[in-house]
Amino acid sequence: MSTEDLQKAFQLSAELLQNQSYHDLTQNLISFLRSIEGVDEVSAYEIFSATPAAGTGGENQRDTLVRRFPLISNDDFDNQNADVLRKLVAESQGGVGYWVGSVAPVIYYDVAGAMEPRRIVLIKGAVSAHDFEVIRGLFGVYSNQVALLDARERDPLTRLLNRDSMDRVLEQVVDFYHLKQPEKETQSSWLALLDIDHASFSHDDDGEETLLHVSALLKKGFRSSDLLFRFDGEEFVVIVNQTDKDGVETSLERFRKDVASHPFPAGKINVSIGFTRVDPDYSAPLLIESADQALYQAKTGASNAIVYNDALRHKQSPMDDVECY
Ligand SMILES: Nc1nc2c(ncn2[C@@H]2O[C@H](COP(=O)(O)OP(=O)(O)OP(=O)(O)O)[C@@H](O)[C@H]2O)c(=O)[nH]1
């Protein structure tokens, strides 16, 4: 690497190190990579392996879940890169390199190893040898920062985003709808709070294993455009994106049934669910409160229930198999 390349790499490394969240870090990296001459497209992905729910089966479930970055995305999946991603996930050992199997040249950043979720950044285009060296040099900085920020933003057991991250992301979702009110109900987001009813949580190992199984069912059961969090103890949050009320009910009901029929090592467990629509006229804490009220109703009524709270708008809507109040 020339002195000039080194200086450039140092300067960019210093910029990357200043980012206080994985979101900002990756945004920063993407915009730098996009500014390189010859680069046509940059895209980033998070890849979750759906373990350890052995024997879950089910047509709606996937073995790996690929989520495109940034988190709030309207598209479910960028199919153009699906092929390269699938092959990289299967064959790459991690690191930075050229992917030669595709028509156009692709440089990949693969933050693999023990990291969950695995991160892959794809850079399409043809860059000079100098720029490639700078890109390569930044990879180490980026992957170390990802590991560091993950420790802050993710729950160490399930590797789902933690409560603090949920607060931040929900604010972003509310802001998103502030700027762009959905034209149709199918473009809405929904906040669901899920609570595991499980007698053996007093026993640590059983409890942890159950949480791992539940988080694996979540990762497999929801779309890649939905956002999953471990909220607190036995509570999880899902932000279900880009669907209407029937759609969110379909997804929650499917998950409820998946849990009810899952062979947990600790025996049978149920899940209670409360949900509300992400209405940009209400703050993130109010939305959580609304979903929490619905969850409370679900837990105190018939267990294994799903309850919708539209109380913020003081409206009731008729539904067949989902309770409203
Ligand atoms: N965001 C989100 N929406 C879902 C999910 N599951 C179902 N939906 C919504 O509910 C609708 C009906 O879902 P399904 O009953 O699974 O029907 P489907 O014909 O298999 O849905 P498609 O995947 O669109 O083909 C979908 O079109 C989505 O709008 C989910 O996990 N996440």
Description:
With 325 residues, the protein is of the alpha+beta class. The protein folds into two domains: 3-153, GAF domain (Beta-Lactamase); 163-324, Reverse transcriptase/Diguanylate cyclase domain (Alpha-Beta Plaits, 2-Layer Sandwich), CATH 3.30.70. The chain contains eight helices and eleven strands. It has a six-stranded mixed beta sheet with strand order 7-8-6-9-10-11, sandwiched between helices. A five-stranded antiparallel beta sheet has the order 2-1-5-4-3, with helices on both faces. A hairpin with a 2-residue loop joins strand 7 (227-232) and strand 8. Helix 6 crosses helix 7 (245-261). The longest helix is centred in the middle third of the chain and has 25 residues, at 129-153. The structure holds guanosine-5'-triphosphate. Guanosine-5'-triphosphate binds at residues 222-223, 226, 240-243, 247, 250-251. Residues 222-223, 226, 240-243, 247, 250-251 line the site of guanosine-5'-triphosphate. One of its GO terms (molecular function) is diguanylate cyclase activity. InterPro entries: Diguanylate_Cyclase, GGDEF_dom, Nucleotide_cyclase, Rev_trsase/Diguanyl_cyclase. It catalyses: 2 GTP = 3',3'-c-di-GMP + 2 diphosphate. Residues 187-311 form the GGDEF domain.
